[in-house]
Design goal:
By secondary structure, the chain is an alpha+beta fold. The chain is built from 11 helices and 12 strands. It is globular.
């Protein structure tokens, strides 16, 4: 009889263990696991992007990986112990114990981003459509234009920064910054308004723009605002007619003379070269000639932080920094974005958002890389 009781106790303990395992593998497992995976994958992705910026500053090739799958195989082991005694001073007795061990062996599968399709996405201009999407999404015009626009009419935005670092060609950028600041002020004060979208074929000065192409965006500037010094300078910089009632934004210069704002956007790869100029290089690496140094005509070194310092700065340290938002190890140093460097964090988020707009489907890769998470 006592042995039958002991068997019942053991069975009950085993059932409790199984129920506990089911509870852990059910909603609780998802609730606890999903945020952790989300954070780990997001952080890893941004760290890889930061590493690519650092590589490009050193004239090293970037390498792109995309998480294509996550496997989290749970393992549960249970144990039940039982003991029974018959007779003796204490009479018959029975006891049971149970143990539960839960573990996961997650594996992340990375897909190398390569091939013709991916190369085209890196080398094709971002386009006005994506510029508009980012602006409608709430991003500041000044930030969007300084990061992604190569030139507006004949006003250039640091064209020497959109490839391997030029040795003796300091960039032109101050006039562009002045133009963008004036546009930002007009938008802030609500003195500029979009009027309509107009077909390019109806606007072409030479008649060689055919119907069916992307439309131009017509906008107006408040007539009273044209008396402001910064707006007068804006119109002069862009060679726009101050007397015109409206103007057009397009990616083609051969529209109405004196009224067309032709915007040329960068490619994602050119944008990466541009932002990589914000990586601060250690002095010993400069002395060893590990990076290109741009020189002015008088022989002094040009500081690229004058161009991108307000947008994106990556500092360095010998030891892992305690105040880093992101940090990667490269060439004996830790390169990092400080946690209080909000401007750089914003720019990194903006660039990642652009990549999402351009991403499409993940290209096929013959060799996915599986990495266990420990």
């Amino acid at each position: 009889m006592r042995l039958r009781v002991c068997a019942g106790v053991v069975l009950s303990a085993a059932c409790l263990v199984v129920l506990a395992a089911c509870e852990r593998l059910g909603p609780n497992a998802v609730q606890q696991g999903m945020p952790a995976y989300n954070e780990a994958i997001a952080r890893t992705g941004t760290e890889l992007m930061l590493l690519n910026f650092v590589r490009m500053r050193y004239s090293d090739s970037p390498y792109f990986l995309e998480v294509s799958n996550v496997f989290a195989a749970p393992r549960v082991s249970t144990g039940v112990t039982a003991a029974a005694g018959v007779g003796g001073l204490g009479g018959d007795s029975a006891s049971a114990g149970a143990s539960l061990a839960y573990s996961e062996n997650p594996i992340i599968v990375y897909t190398p981003m390569s091939g013709e399709q991916f190369a085209k996405r890196l080398l094709e201009p971002i386009g006005l459509e994506n510029i508009g999407r980012l602006h409608r999404g709430g991003w500041n015009m000044d930030l969007i234009f300084r990061v992604f626009v190569q030139r507006i009419n004949n006003v250039w935005n640091a064209e020497a920064a959109t490839g391997p670092t030029a040795l003796r060609t300091p960039p032109r950028y101050k006039r562009f910054n002045r133009v963008v600041a004036a546009f930002q002020a007009l938008e802030r004060d609500r003195l500029i308004d979009v009027a309509a979208e107009v077909g390019k074929d109806a606007l072409s000065a030479s008649g060689d723009v055919t119907a069916g192409e992307e439309e131009a965006l017509e906008f107006v500037i408040n007539p009273q605002a044209k008396q402001r010094p910064d707006v007068r300078q804006l119109l002069a910089d862009l060679e726009l007619d101050p007397a015109a009632e409206s103007y057009f934004i397009a990616d083609t210069p051969n529209l109405v003379p004196g009224r067309t704002l032709a915007i040329v956007t960068r490619t994602p790869l050119a944008t990466m070269f541009y932002l990589s100029k914000g990586v601060v290089i250690p002095d010993d690496h400069l002395q060893r000639g590990l990076v290109h140094v741009t020189q002015r005509r008088d022989g002094t070194s040009f500081d690229w932080l004058d161009v991108v310092g307000e947008l994106f700065v990556v500092d360095h340290a010998r030891e892992p920094p305690a105040d880093a938002h992101l940090a990667v190890s490269y060439r004996g140093y830790w390169f990092y974005i400080a946690d209080d460097n909000v401007a750089s964090k914003d720019t990194l988020v903006l660039f990642n958002m652009l990549l999402l707009l351009r991403a499409g489907e993940i290209p096929e890769a013959k060799t996915p890389i599986s990495v266990p998470i420990r």
